[in-house]
Structure formats: C-alpha cells, structure tokens
Amino acid sequence: MPISEEKPAEPVLAYPLGDALYLNVTSACTLACVFCPKIRDGDFTVGPYDLRVVRNPDVEQVWDAAVRAGLDGRSEVVFTGFGESTRRLDVVLEIARRLKAAGVRRVRLDTDGLASLREGRDVPPLLAAAGVDAVSVSLNAADAGTYARICPSRYGERAYEAVKDFIRSAVGCLPDVAASAVALPGNSEQACRAVAESLGARFRWRPYDRLGRLESADRTAVGGRRAG
C-alpha cells in the first residue's frame, strides 16, 4: 500500500464566532470533566472547526493566526478551546500584551481556575498586568466532593479550594470575573450561585442538553474548559 503524502491539517489556532475571536493554544487539560465532549466522545469540534492541537504552537504561531483571522472590530478576543489555556501561561500572557497593544478592547480567558495551584504562584495578578480584562472560571460545583467527582484531577478534593482561591484573587485585580457551573443532573444552581457570589463573582449557569453534552452555543466555554 503506497504511503500517503497528504499533510495533516493545520490546527485551528484562531476562529471567529459572531463578532468575537477565539484563540486555541493547547488541547492539554488539567481536568477530565465528565461533561467534556472530548472526554466523552473524543469530539474536538466547535461548529465547523476542529480544535484538536497535536503540537503546542509558540507565541508567533498563535499571533500570526490571530492577525490572519482579523483583530479589528472584534467585541473581544477569548482564550479558550478544548484544553486549559493557562497550561501555556507564558503564551497567554505575551499574546494578551500584544492584543492590548494592538487596540483590542476586551481580552477574556476561560479557565478551570487551577493555574495558581499548578504554577505555584498567584496567577490572576499576572493576567491583569498583561491586559486580560475578564476571566470566566469553571466552578462547576458547590462543594469539594462533587467537584472532584465531576472534574477529576490529580489534585483530588483540594482542587476545589484552589479554584475558589483563584476566583477570590481574580476579583481583587480584574474588572470582570464570572464563575460558571454546568447544569448536570443533581447539580444545584442555587448552591453554586451562592458559592460564586460569596467569592465576589457573577454567576453563569451553563445549559446541558439531553444528550449529555454542552449545547453547541456554549461549547467554546469548555475548559474550560471550555473545559472543565
């Protein structure tokens, strides 16, 4: 059988949805959330875009993709995808600085909120200094046990307190901080909202469709993620 010379498709590093631009810098995650389409189904698609990143891009590759996709007139530029963007923290910080220098009015990060625990340093002030305007943090539960069950990681139940610490820190240095939770069966919107608001964040209740996957309109928040 002849060996195919077809080159693999280039990863989608920047993709528009509406008037926003989304940046996809990695497929690596800290969590293995039970509701994540890539965990459940191996599905990395958002609309027409396949967001699987096999080899992590460097700063110049991400920046070139963002510029090609167009920065003018964007309502915001968002770091998100089917990986945890802060796993590439240096890339996120440098791209954020470039975006603000280029006149982008709003830069947002969708995150699992575990960067400070993973990096061993307080990350929200670094994001603020780089020009990030907003973060959306996947809180996803009202207690540590539930969080560890639906968003498993090597950190176990201590991950939940780290997420809350991240949100508290972000509230202290960023103008817009949201904490989200997915409407999984048995998850309490009221209880999750109470936790988010006690931390000073606004709350987002993310819908979950009957197939057990995030509705397509909200899947870019996976992390988030995004994903967990």
Describe this protein's structure.
- The chain is of the alpha/beta class and 228 residues long.
- It has a single domain (14-221), classed as Alpha-Beta Barrel (TIM Barrel).
- It is 32% helix and 16% strand.
- The chain is built from eight helices and nine strands.
- It has helices at residues 37-41, 59-69, 89-101, 115-119, 124-130, 144-150, 158-173, 189-198; strands at 14-17, 20-23, 45-46, 49-50, 77-79, 107-111, 134-138, 176-182, 202-206.
- The strands form two sheets. A seven-stranded mixed beta sheet has the order 1-2-5-6-7-8-9. Strands 3-4 form a two-stranded antiparallel sheet.
- A hairpin with a 2-residue loop joins strand 1 and strand 2.
- Helix 6 (144-150) crosses helix 7 (158-173).
- It is globular.
- The N and C termini lie far apart (41 Å).
- The model is unreliable at 1-8 and 210-228 (pLDDT under 50).
Please give the structural blueprint.
Layout (H helix, E strand, L loop, with lengths): L13 E4 L2 E4 L13 H5 L3 E2 L2 E2 L8 H11 L7 E3 L9 H13 L5 E5 L3 H5 L4 H7 L3 E5 L5 H7 L7 H16 L2 E7 L6 H10 L3 E5 L22
Parallel strand pairs: 2-5, 5-6, 6-7, 7-8, 8-9
Antiparallel strand pairs: 1-2, 3-4
How would you characterize the largest beta sheet?
A: 7 strands, mixed
Could you say what the CATH architecture is? Alpha-Beta Barrel
- How are helices and strands ordered from N to C? EEHEEHEHEHHEHHEHE
Going by helix content, strand content and strand pairing, the class is: alpha/beta
Overall average residue pLDDT? 86
Helical fraction equals: 25-40%
